[in-house]
Amino acid sequence: MGTRRLTLMLIILAVLTVVAGSVTHHAPYTPPPDEEGQKTLNERPLILVHDVTPYYFDDLRQIIAVLDEYNYSNRTVLFVIPVFDTTHYGDEWSLRNHPDFVNYLHELQRRGYRVELHGYEHTYHEFNCSYETANEKLDNATALMNSLGFGNLTLFLPPAWALNNESLRAILEHNLTVVMPNWLILPNGTRQRIWNREYTWYIGENQVDDRLSVALHDYRKASEDGIPFYLSVHPGVVNRGGGLDFLRAFLRTICGQKKS
Hints:
It holds the Pfam family DUF2334. This protein is α/β, with parallel strands linked by helices.
């Protein structure tokens, strides 16, 4: 009789453990407690906006409008393409040809948004190339950005995450920190662990809640592990379906405030 009772208790405990785990996975984000048992505020996520180019001017404005609702300029990095997709458009979307867009970027800078580098032309796997080619592209990119008033660049996000050892060496020699999905690679070659993910790749309106649950779970886990959390978005992608609804809900939860 005692054995049966013990077996029953073990089964009940196992079921409760599974249920608790499921509830925890889908629970809203709450900061982990400090040593005194009180909730601590973690460093807020960085928002990384890829593909910043005049080609996506209207889409970028929509993204900025959502970020501004939560005063998120100081935690947002705009990764700029100096000359977008020369394979298909030539120099049509070069920053030089769009002073209105350049002025807009400077306005965003003054408001706290950070401007950094996202390749040169953003052609297919652009930086999966030789050291010499990468070095030339970086020289051209930084020279163009400097000529337009965007000096002191410190971050480089490779298009499509495509790199090799040769191109990486050229980037680091330009004193740029490389942003990847799991690592920051510093100019001295050391690596810092990060969590950098995109949750809005052509999601439908009916997927917002599920994607938000996953993102908040990831943020909670990264915070508990002491890993900086970055959220990537692409103009022209996040603007479709439920993307901006996700971004707004994510920021509302993280910032702990209602839409202003």
